[in-house]
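ESCALATION

Customer reports they have been waiting on this structure for their group meeting. Please prioritize. Original submission:
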Amino acid sequence: MENLALESILVSELSTHGGSEVLKRDDFEYKTLFLNSIEMDPENPRYLPVKLISDHHAKSYLKRMLSKANLIEIYKPREQVLVGYGCLVNCIESGTYEHSLAHKNFKSIADLADNIQRSEVIQVPTVYPHKDVYRILTGHRRFLAMVYSQGIEGVGQFKVYDSEPLFKKVKQFQENTSREDLDAYGKLSAYIDAKLELDTLSQARLKVGEKALTVRSQVAMLGVSAGKFDNYNVLTRYPCVVSLYQKGLSKSFKAVKKVVLRIEEEYRAKSGFDKKVFNKTEKDEINDLIYSALTGSKSTQRNIIRTKPIHSPLVVKQLLQSDITAMDMGVDWSQVNWHCSQEVDDVLGKVIKKLEQLQLTVE
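Update from on-call: job pushed to the front of the queue and completed.
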């Protein structure tokens, strides 16, 4: 749900029902659904770019009647993996970070499928109606494990919401933050999305004359401790931290948080001002210092903008012919520092990924 649309809905709901009722709005029931009536959510941090294959093709592949090349010809995956009955086929470009991440996910999906066959799904995936199908809210790997063990013609138990939940990203974060197999970048991305929903709720509350959410309220809604909430806030304060985790930074959250706080403190001491809030120029300078501390590289080595590979000519067409800044790309364009190569690089990568996800949804 787009943030502007969410704010309008929240203002209406708050005016009609009040704050406490808005948080209880989502109704659900448990249903048995056909697996071929379910689709993945491409914007979920736990999302693995997937195309599901028919049981007939999956069984033919297992019997060596179809090769990987045959499946690619039939399904034409674009940087995706093919998942079906007993099949996990990696069609992402070999040697890339995404390719290795997909292989890592394959093992967890296969292990989960084995557990499901032994004891069934204990925590069922949650879904909500989306167009003519159901879209997964939480439990992407559990769903893929169900497809792997049963095929797409199988059935499964799901927690089904009556409509798209208002705080979809908050619910996804609640699941993602507790999963040990989700990488650091996935957790930080999930937090950024969830925090944006909470900020939208705060803005809506202010518009109807209520107070903004307190830190205690936000902690309760996210389902984390106050300490973890502070960790996430510090780690998402500067774009280089999230970007480096995306590119494979292996340092722990605790270690990186210490670096961020140390550099902020050193910057305050050097400037001679005991600031609690930095302006945008100061944040950009601190961002460069943090990058150098975490990588050992000077910021001048990041002046080249490295565009991520674009796999759809339609995405190139949109980039060249559309006003991307007028579209909801999940980017606050007023806050982009166009003089910072790394930040522009990160924003461009995010826009390309969003446009490719939209193309996959259309298909």
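Sent to customer with the following note: The longest strand covers residues 28-34.
Escalation resolved.
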